[in-house]
Amino acid sequence: MLTLDKIYHASHVLRDVVRETKLVAAPKINKDCNVYLKPECLQLTGSFKLRGSGYMISQLSDEEKSHGVIACSAGNHAQGVALAATKYGIKSLICLPDGAPISKVEATKNYGAEVCMVPGVYDDAYNKAIELRDKCNYTFVHPFDDINVIAGQGTIGLEIMEEMSDVDAVVVPIGGGGLISGVAFACKKLNPKIKVYGVQAEGAPSMFESIKQGKIVSLDRVNTIADGIKVKEPGENTFQLVRDYVDEIVTVSEDEISSAILALIEQQKMIAEGAGAVSVAAVMFNKLPVKGKKVVCVVSGGNIDVTILSRVIKRGLMNTGRSAGLCIELMDKPGQLEQVSRIIAKCGGNVISVHHERASETADINGCYLRLVLETRNFDHIKMIEDALKEQGFKLV
């Protein structure tokens, strides 16, 4: 049974294991409410997962510790288990899906774990870990559906309530549900009036669909840049706790996640992975009834692969009107590019890419296409540039 005493005990045990992450004000995320961030992306190992795995491993018997531990993960839980096991002098074996970011795989090895790569997604890695557990007598450290793991994650809720007792709502990412189960339980026990909201990616809405249908649902496939919450099926314990203690679950799109990652980088100088940014995305795009409220968004992790980060930034720029692509049909004669450039410069746009293309598809046999990529301020700025070009007789394709 999960109890508030167990979460307080976890907080005491983890005092020398985890880093305390103080709340950070984020006034620009949504001007209609008072937003604060719980930056677990700054946690040791770069994610909240160290809390749950650290507490669970600390409670093992000496015999269980002697056999070592095994876990499966998309990356963050792996690092938490690896570091916690190394701290307690225990052998650890981690099964990871072969699509896990290279940075997370290498980090797991560096924390002292042995790694087993498994073809497929998280659920395939889970099945392999269970197989090896039974074969080699390891103790399995579940990433979310274990009461001690949930209690460890619940320490985040205690810290939020201790630092900001008058908070109105807490917004938490959901994958398998371990984080939100612990946070919601702790917050609701300390203040039953507080609202706890969960957020999932549109491409992996397993808990969203499970609560909606009133039973645990296993998705056929999941697809999202938020790899830390790419889970096909929630746990039995987490499903029950979310059903009992979480007020509402919403989903966010890939574009909204990308925009939230970009906003955190620019406004807060904070790096979040996709899973960590979904809570911010939900508040940023008004998916939740938090207008006028004091809101804490749990930024659950910051272990984003740098190759993905560059693509996410480009997508985020486009989604917020900070970057625009224009295709202009021109007469193929001298001076046209100069005239287009002058109009864009007068409007305050910055051309960062130019491609001139002679094409037979144009309406005029002497026509050509000019493809431009611009740096812009917002969507209104893009429209101003387009209108100025049209006023001068240029045809936008």
Folded structure, characterized:
The chain is of the alpha/beta class and 397 residues long. It has helices spanning 4-13, 49-58, 62-67, 76-87, 102-110, 122-136, 147-163, 178-190, 206-213, 236-245, 254-268, 274-284, 306-319, 336-346, 379-391; strands spanning 24-25, 34-39, 69-72, 92-97, 114-118, 139-140, 169-173, 195-201, 248-252, 294-299, 323-331, 350-358, 367-375, 395-396. The strands form 3 sheets. The protein has a 6-stranded mixed sheet with strand order 1-2-10-7-8-9, sandwiched between helices. Strands 5-4-3-6 form a 4-stranded parallel sheet, sandwiched between helices. It has a 4-stranded antiparallel sheet with strand order 12-13-11-14. The model has no long low-confidence stretch (mean pLDDT 93).
What is the H-and-E element order? Answer: HEEHHEHEHEHEHEHEHHEHHEHEHEEHE
Helix content: 40-55%
Query: Mean of the pLDDT scores?
Result: 93
Helix and strand content put the structural class at alpha/beta
Low-confidence stretches: none
Write out the strand line-up for the largest beta sheet, numbering strands in chain order: 1-2-10-7-8-9
Total number of β-strand segments? Answer: 14
Shape: elongated
Write the SSE topology.
Blueprint: H1 4-13, E1 24-25, E2 34-39, H2 49-58, H3 62-67, E3 69-72, H4 76-87, E4 92-97, H5 102-110, E5 114-118, H6 122-136, E6 139-140, H7 147-163, E7 169-173, H8 178-190, E8 195-201, H9 206-213, H10 236-245, E9 248-252, H11 254-268, H12 274-284, E10 294-299, H13 306-319, E11 323-331, H14 336-346, E12 350-358, E13 367-375, H15 379-391, E14 395-396
Parallel strand pairs: 2-10, 3-4, 3-6, 4-5, 7-8, 7-10, 8-9
Antiparallel strand pairs: 1-2, 11-13, 11-14, 12-13
Helix pairs in contact: 1-7, 2-4, 2-7, 4-5, 7-8, 8-10, 11-12, 11-13
